[in-house]
UniProtKB/TrEMBL annotation:
SUPFAM superfamilies: Dimeric alpha+beta barrel (SSF54909). This is YCII-related domain-containing protein. Belongs to the YciI family. InterPro entries: Dimeric_a/b-barrel, YCII. PANTHER family: BLL7171 PROTEIN, BLL7171 PROTEIN-RELATED. It comes from Trebonia kvetii.
Length: 117
């Protein structure tokens, strides 16, 4: 089964948020990088790309045949989608175990798992 793991940053400190990132020890920052690297090397994982902040989004709608473009995300989001990865696993329990290893899941964010057709 193939799964899409959507990584919601929530209040997770990231390198882009220099103040929050600086609040972590050097050891914690190294552990986060090491965790993401190990996850990317897990058999069955196809790493995705980290996304820029929701404010960088462009939303496109078509109404009555007219294309409408809006700067920013479609909806206000409490937990911004920060990245994703694809995972080929035998079952949902294996996908859950991988999601639990993603640093964002333990640092104030969440990981949503969606089966793919």
């Amino acid at each position: 089964m193939n799964y899409l793991l959507l990584i919601n940053q929530g209040s997770t400190p990231t390198p882009e948020d220099q103040q929050a990132w600086a609040g972590l020890s050097e050891e914690e920052r190294k552990a986060i990088f090491a965790d993401y690297q190990a996850i990317s090397q897990t058999p069955g994982v196809t790493p995705g790309q980290r996304m820029q902040a929701p404010e960088m989004a462009t939303t496109v709608r078509v109404q009555n045949g007219k294309t409408i473009i809006t700067d920013g995300p479609y909806v206000e989001m409490k937990e911004a989608l920060g990245g994703y990865l694809l995972f080929e696993a035998d079952d949902l329990d294996t996908a859950i175990a991988l999601a639990a290893r993603i640093p964002a899941a333990r640092l104030g964010g969440a990981v949503e798992i969606r089966p793919l057709d």
